[in-house]
Amino acid sequence: MPARPRPPAVAGAFYAERPEQLARELEACFLSPRGPGKLPARRRSADRRIVAAIVPHAGYTYSGPIAAYAYARIAAERPPEAVLLLGVDHHGASRGASLSARPWLTPLGPTPVNEELLGALSVLPVEVDEAAHASEHSIEVQLPFLEYVLPRPSIVALEVRFGTLAFLEEVASVVRDALRGRDVLLVASTDFSHYVAPAVAERLDHLAIDRILARDARGLYDIVRRERISMCGIAPTTVLLAALSDRPLSATLLRWGHSGEVGAADEVVGYASLLLEEPGAAAPLK
Question: For the domain 19-41+49-277, what is the CATH code?
């Protein structure tokens, strides 16, 4: 019997719960002055240079337009055969590195699991743990964007709990081996500084972003801990960088912003949209 889909946990809160409303909300993210300013291209290139994206996961009102920068670029290239979504353990529900073996349901419909990639990733310390995913939003909020920009995407969801650098490198080693010989797009889900002054968020976030642009997993882990940057997705982002450390990729910041851009606030949450690409990639959207 096929596995029952994982139902949405934050539809109606982080994004619209009715399909037609959600489609309009996604389009508003792309059209927003804080976003790319236009809908994704209808024509795709025949190749794909984007290997990975790092995107935020707050409510679409706040972070959706910034996430849209990366998804607009993904929409313009050949679709991958699978997407590996690396998420956050906000609730302390994961035993460490937790896979989901179920399709995921959003108001736009179900997104199937890529069974081959799931099997390749099922190597300790990575293991299937559906309970860890039940209430977590960091992966879920990426799915409507993927469903909007990719035809028939198939996914694997991997939630990574914060731990030692050695543990994250061990998870990254499993991911690296699973990617070998497969056409997979990686997406790490993270917000940056939480509830600090806008100027503080900009300063601290760019310390972390500089390490991402240098593709320095250890440096990112160290600077986040040393400067006490409240980057919730440090674990999945470190895993992504470490897993791809042996590949000659270029990293690009498409957009940084914060929640105070929606309405003036003394304390904000920082967001960024970044890509890792094969050499010779096209210039980022303006």
Answer: 3.40.830.10
Whether residue 8 contacts residue 2, with contact meaning beta carbons closer than 8 Å, is answered with: no
Query: How high is the mean pLDDT of the chain?
Result: 95
Each residue's pLDDT tens digit, 120-162: 999 999 999 999 999 999 999 999 999 999 999 999 999 999 9
* Sequence ranges of the domains in the chain: 19-41+49-277
pTM above 0.85, yes or no: yes
Q: Quote the crossing angle between the two packed helices 198-213 and 217-226, to the nearest 10°.
A: 160
Closest CA to 26 of 12, 11, 16, 34: 16
**Residue of 81, 42, 12, 67 lying closest to 188 (CA atoms):** 67
Residue 222: CB atoms within 10 Å: 13
CB 133 within 8 A of CB 100: yes
